[in-house]
Amino acid sequence: MYPRASHFDYLLILGFKAVDALIIAAVLVAAIKLHGPLWGPGYTIAVLVAVIVFFLVAEVVGLYRPWRGETVSRQFFQLLLVWMWTFFILLLLAYGFKSSSFYSRIAIGIWLITTPFLLSTWRIVGRRVFCYKGRKSNVVVWGSGALYEQLVATISQTPRLGLNLVEHIRDDSVNGSASDTMDPSAEPTISKLGSLVQGAKNGDFDILYIALPTMARAEIAELVDRLADSTLSVYMVPDYFTSSLAQGKWSNLEGIPLVSIYDTPFWGVEGWVKRIQDVVLSSLFLLAAAVPMLLITIAIKLSSPGPVLFKQRRYGINGKEIKVWKFRSMHVCEDEDKIPQARKDDPRITKLGALLRRTSLDELPQLINVLFGTMSIVGPRPHAIAHNKLYRKQIKGYMLRHKVRPGITGWAQINGWRGETDDLYKMEKRIEYDLWYIRNWSLWLDLKIVLLTLLYGFTGKAAY
């Protein structure tokens, strides 16, 4: 028999809450020790109120829901949102009671910045410990086809999800083969769906994933109806997600369930996190690059006639036209309906421009685009209007890359798909990597791309 369900999850959530409260208090104590006056009753009240508000907001956001199957990045965004709301409410209370002057600004600042990162670190460690050592949710998968295979492989090969695949039932009968093929090595074996229903009623497993084609609606409805007499969690995995371009997210419209096939990952808190990241990084990079940009400006003016900056029309988010800034690297400033791509030994490129393009220093003015909000630090590289008109007719899903802001660097670029696209295959691969980035975006992925760009991304064989 499967392991019976217990109160482990409730105890786990209680443990996480206790550690969260301890971290919130400990960070403020440490901040006062490092920089602040002696601890007073005002700080004790601040900690108590912070913990209470944190838990209340966490309940609204769903921070302490069972996290098995949830990504780390999504939990981080939820936690950041809860802490920001908590801190905002604390500030309102402090000003409302006219007690804000009592607290050390530096100590409170340390508390604000450090707490979410320590809470996130604790969660990452806790997830790993309890995923590998603690009780996992026992899972059964019933389905057929490629999506069924992908789901089984994902659960089997991803221990951090906290899911234990105890059985998977391949049912091809809905495709007309009238067969029920199962892994003979799986123990225990569920030979019929009747046994599955009985196991659910007995509490022998926790979750059932159904991955069947939509044509199996009658079979699915019958099983779900029979499972209503159990406490089993049932998830339907629709076959809409088999498309390689699908964004695959659920939402609702006043209670009506919706599935997004093509969408942006930057709705709600994710959009704010992405924008804050862009403003912070672009400001820091502009400060660091101020002197080099001044020297490049002088060098361009002295080396060849023409403007220092080159502005070109390109597609931004949602396909809207934007002006992208670059240091001029050519003798010409082309922005017509037909623009030849830069190629090796291109006579249009100046001697200084060749150096700027090889090192990607010509892209530095785009940090201003990022600061103004027309571009992002990380995203699909923007193409000239003429090239968009050409490739959108030849590559399926080409325009989906414009569901997000274009970037200075991107997943395609650090994987070698930059520079001249002298054949269609190269552009197809670039689009493939761009769409993968959009489907799999996370804050950590952005930071990884930025780091790899700083280490390796400024030069390359295709950079000319």
Main sheet, how many strands, which sense, barrel?
Answer: 5 strands, mixed
Strand content: 5-15%
Structural classification? alpha/beta
Strand order of the largest sheet: 3-2-1-4-5
The Cα radius of gyration reads 27 Å
Shape: flat
Q: What does the average pLDDT come to? A: 77
Number of individual domains: 3
How many strands?
Answer: 11
Uncertain regions spanning at least 5 consecutive residues: 1-7, 176-191, 242-247
Number of helices: 14
Order of helices and strands: HHHHEHEEHEHEEEHEEHHEHEHHH
**Helical amount among residues, as a percent range?**
40-55%
Q: Give the N-to-C terminal Cα separation.
A: 64 Å
Could you characterize the architecture of this molecule?
It is flat and about 80 Å long. The chain starts with 7 loop residues before the first helix and ends in an 8-residue tail after the last helix. The N terminus is likely disordered. Helix content is 49%, strand content 12%. With 464 residues, it is of the alpha/beta class.
Summarize the topology.
Layout: H1 8-34, H2 41-61, H3 72-96, H4 105-132, E1 137-143, H5 145-157, E2 163-171, E3 180-182, H6 193-202, E4 207-211, H7 217-227, E5 233-236, E6 249-253, E7 256-260, H8 269-303, E8 309-315, E9 321-327, H9 351-358, H10 366-372, E10 376-378, H11 385-391, E11 407-409, H12 411-414, H13 424-439, H14 443-456
Parallel strand pairs: 1-2, 1-4, 4-5, 10-11
Antiparallel strand pairs: 2-3, 6-7, 8-9
